C-alpha cells in the first residue's frame, strides 16, 4: 500500500473505521492501567507478585474459558492437532505467564511510567529477534529507531535512578526480561494466530497462562496467603476486567476494523496514558527529562512500526 492509498483511505474511511480507532485507544489505555492497579495493590498490603497475579488470572479465567468454548463451536473452525497444543502451551507459558510474572515482580521496585516505557520496547525487540531467528534484514530505519528508543529509555532511567531507592536496576531488569519474553511470544504467535484466529488463540493462551499461574501459587503458598484486605480483591477484579479481558477483545476488534499496523500505532498512546495516570493516582512526578525520553521511545517505536501500517 503506497502513500496515495493511505491518503485515499484517510479521506474516505470505511463506516466502522471510527469505531476501530476508539476501540484501539480504549485497549491501549486499558492495558496501561495494569501498572496502576498493581502499584495501588502494593500500597494496600504486603502482597507478593505471584499472589497478585494469581488473583488477576483467577478473575479472568472464567471469561477466557467461555470465549474458548464459544470460538471452538463456530463454523469453519480448524481442529487442533498435537503440534497446535504444544505451540499454545509454549506460547501461553512464555507470553502471558512468564512475561506477566516478571512484570509484576519488576513493579515492586519500579515506577509505573518507566515500567510501561520499557514494556513498550517490544516492537524493537521483535525486529531484533526476527533478524536473529529468521534472518530478516535490519534496515537503516530499524537501526535509527533502535538507537532513538534506547537513548530515550536511558534518559528516563538516569533520571529515575536519582529519584528511586535500592533495587531499581533489579526492577528494570525484570521488566526488560518481561518485554523480551513477550517479544518471543509475538515472534512465535504468527502461525497460531493465522490458523486459530486471534480471539480463539488468545483465549487458549490465557487459559494456559492462568493454569501455570494458579499451579505456581498453589505450590508456593498456602490458603492463608489469600487472607487479604477486601481492597486487594477489588483491585484484582478491576485489573482482570479493565486491564485484561476488555482490552484483549477490544484490541482484537480494532485489528479487524482498522488493521494491525494502525492498531499498533494507536497503541503508542499507552505509555503516555500510564505516565499521566501514575501522576494522577500514584503521585509520580513528571519532569522534562522524562518527557524527552518518552518522546524518543515513542518516536523510535513509531519509526519501526510505521512501514508495517502502510
Automatic annotation (TrEMBL):
One of its GO terms (cellular component) is plasma membrane. PANTHER family: EAMA DOMAIN-CONTAINING PROTEIN, OS03G0707200 PROTEIN-RELATED. This is Permease. The chain crosses the membrane at residues 17-37, 49-72, 84-105, 117-134, 143-162, 168-187, 199-220, 232-251, 263-281, 287-306. Its main location: membrane. It is a multi-pass membrane protein. SUPFAM superfamilies: Multidrug resistance efflux transporter EmrE. It is found in: Cell membrane. Residues 19-157, 170-305 form the EamA domain. Keywords: Cell membrane, Membrane, Transmembrane, Transmembrane helix. It holds the Pfam family EamA. It comes from the Bacteria. InterPro entries: Diverse_Substrate_Transporter, EamA_dom, EmrE-like. It comes from Sulfuriferula nivalis.
